[in-house]
Write a structure and sequence with these properties.
Blueprint: H1 7-16, H2 24-35, E1 40-44, H3 50-58, E2 63-68, E3 80-85, E4 99-105, H4 114-124, E5 125-136, H5 141-148, H6 154-157, H7 167-176, E6 180-187, H8 195-203, E7 210-216
Parallel strand pairs: 1-2, 1-4, 2-3, 4-5
Antiparallel strand pairs: 5-7, 6-7
Helix pairs in contact: 2-3
Length: about 220
């Protein structure tokens, strides 16, 4: 059963290992890697290993490694094979062409040097490997209204969120790192988002609060 939860509460419970909600961006990512036939993926910013557990629930044959900067965030989940501890905005101590998939879930809004993050993701992926990104959508319907009235959207009052992302800006930077972008769209962070939000989804696929990008490392 899925329980609706405020985003702040979700992140707090994730860190404490008491996760009670499966948000859409995570279920979409897990399904994406499975449908793409990935068997070895790396979860950047894996925290307590919840996403790895979700992936294993979709397909137990998928192997998940995790990266986190802080040692206190090392995943405790048995679903994670290897826990790496390093700064993802510096060269990664990983072999080139070694992973089938990379999950950048709610991470790119936290980093200054996104170019190194994308370049290293490209290098580490095998040819034909895929990338799944989720990040707050600065031009979602709610943020447009808030900015119109001079308010700062709550996502960016959070001092950890230092980058603003739109679909076009994300597509451009992924292409600059060599990726072929397969799809960009948006979802709402909460389940059962309400009639107004559902209607806006029909108006534009980029009106939701969370921006999603799916990309691939070309075979040649």
């Amino acid at each position: 059963m899925v329980i609706e939860m405020d985003i702040v509460e979700f992140y707090r419970t994730t860190v404490t290992g008491k996760v009670t909600n499966v948000v859409p961006r995570l279920t979409l990512a897990a399904s994406f890697f499975n449908l793409r036939g990935c068997r070895l993926i790396i979860d950047v910013g894996g925290n307590d290993g919840f996403f790895a557990s979700l992936v294993k629930g979709v397909n137990p044959d998928i192997v998940v490694d995790s990266i986190d900067l802080g040692e206190e965030l090392y995943p405790k989940s048995q679903s994670v094979r290897v826990n790496y501890n390093y700064d993802v905005t510096k060269p990664w101590p990983l072999t080139s062409d070694s992973y089938d998939g990379i999950h950048l879930g709610a991470i790119i809004e936290h980093v200054f040097d996104y170019k190194t993050l994308f370049d290293e993701s490209f290098r580490v992926l095998k040819p034909g490997g895929v990338l799944f990104i989720s990040t707050p959508n600065v031009v979602c319907l709610k943020h447009r209204v808030e900015i119109l009235f001079g308010r700062m959207p709550a996502w960016y009052v959070n001092f950890d969120h230092i980058r603003l992302w739109t679909a076009s800006f994300l597509r451009k930077n992924l292409a600059n790192s060599g990726f072929k972008v397969l799809n960009t769209y948006s979802v709402w962070e909460k389940n059962n988002p309400g009639l107004l939000r559902i209607l806006t989804t029909y108006i534009s696929s980029l009106m939701g609060s969370i921006l999603i990008a799916e990309a691939i490392k070309p075979l040649e």
